[in-house]
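We modelled the chain as a single entity of 251 amino acids. Its sequence is:
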Amino acid sequence: MLGPQDGKPTPPLNLLGDFGGGLLCAFGILAAVIRRGITGRGEVLDANLTDGTAYLSSWLWRARDLPVWGEGRGTGWFDGGLPWYTTYRCRDGQFVAVGCLEKQFFDNLLEALGIPGKYNQQHDQDYLESMRTEFGSIFQGKTRGEWAEIFEELDACVTPVLSLDEASRFSRHQSGQPSQRGQTDNSGRRSSGPSPSPRILSPSNLPLPVAELGMDLVHHGQHTEAVLREMGHSDREIQDLISGRIIQGPP
């Protein structure tokens, strides 16, 4: 399902199985807790990553006959099959992502590329390949940073493709507070990651920047020793577990 038309399928990292399927398991747990509060009875939850991932793709299964899907992988609207929903290489070898499905965004894209009104029929199959070629040639004329600056104030659904480190420093992300800083590891590098989402808000509980709340990312093993001590394990037992690589200690 993922990957270029003429290439091999591309793994979706582990976002689908471990995290997508896992979040549905967490959703099921919360649903069971709510049901217990209504019925007063406990629930048995049947969940696994395979079923969860399959359920995430429900719309794809039911929408196979819609025109948004092409003939095979990499030919549809959402998987790189269209010139206005894909990525392009820039002059510096970096990439931008284009996702202007709606006509108003598409018109703004043409304006920014310097070819306003050239492709009035956005979905005309006769022009898709020439459109892709022209878009690619134009994007090659500037660096990713230059394109990011051009599209910063233009609503065209065009964004720079960023690395994880770049994403945490991206101006739009910083203004929205989606990332938070963690602890410093042994190499002196301070980790970062997305802030919890969604956030539960109320008039008396407005969100504050993570730095003002004094919050840090939780790391693997950060609280392991404290939990084991509460369970009655001695320091010697805990160190033996860490030395034997049975558990992970603090960073």
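As a brief sanity check on the tokenised model: The longest strand covers residues 179-184. The CA atoms of residues 5 and 71 lie 9 Å apart.
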